Amino acid sequence: MQNMYLKGGKLFVLDQTKLPNEEIYFTPKTKEDYYYAIKTLQVRGAPAIGIFAGYAMAMLDGNKEELKAYLDSCRPTAVNLSYATSRMLKAYKDGKNLLDEATAIHNEDIEMCRKISEYGLSLLHDGDGVLTHCNAGELATSKYGTGLGPLILGAEKGYNFHAYVDETRPLLQGARLTSYELEKAGIDTTLICDNMASLVMKQGKINAVLVGTDRIAANGDIANKIGTSGVAILAKYYGIPFYVLGPYSTIDYKCKTGDDIVIEEREQSEIKEMWYKKPMALPETKCYNPSFDVTDNSLITAIITDRGILRAPYRESLERIKDND
Ligand code: MRU
Fold it and tell me: Considering only Cβ atoms within 10 Å of each terminal Cβ, which end of the chain, N or C, has fewer?
């Protein structure tokens, strides 16, 4: 399943807000179309947003610096967005072919996801029960995914895993996207409400937790979908390995700790109204809807990147894989 592809000079993009009921592709034309697609999560998942923004920079005419600033302002937490727009801006200033550069970002992500998935798979055993949170599969990346990559690659290689999928309130990326993707990949999948994670861990059903990430700070703190830190605390309590999977481009060395990560806050209606026929709270009831939370590095068993499996102390292990630039 491809979340976006080029054909006849046009970009076709799968509208993730319509899943799992409809598989509809659309073609963004204006800068507002691209912005809206990222903002409303038609395109979502840190690497996928970066790839999509790369194509936006290539396909749209006009002032590229302004376009970069406009796209970057859309969702602040995932570093891949500004990584891709910065790279495209540099390619533009260097006089490179922008469509080639955007395609290179896309193809490199496929390569990175494959490596991450191989490393992740080396930590799992056939028959393992694995808990996931949010969606970090092919929809959120390019191919295989990060958090889901070991499961999807493992299924290709004949492993049998049992995936327990947190529904991931409030936007239900786990229910709508992860269970859909894993079912399609032929993986034994059980959907659970987020607040059931403790029970399935206590029942011994979970051998490992796999999650993606939107930003990795220089000390190994990570930002990921709201609820991730709670899952990590539970995993620590039950002695279950908690693995974070993400490409090198997700590491933000300028960000010293998780406290420096900007957390996106989203509309209150996503909690009160979005999936219901009638509002589930009074109009005057206040909601707090941060889209991500920060997981402390002390709760992370390993960070799995395309450059290898990193262990604590993360400041040192992250420094060891850093480019010299
Ligand atoms: O708000 P979303 O749906 O873009 O959140 C996505 C996640 O939290 C993913 O787990 C994260 O981007 C890692 S993507 C491989």
Answer: C
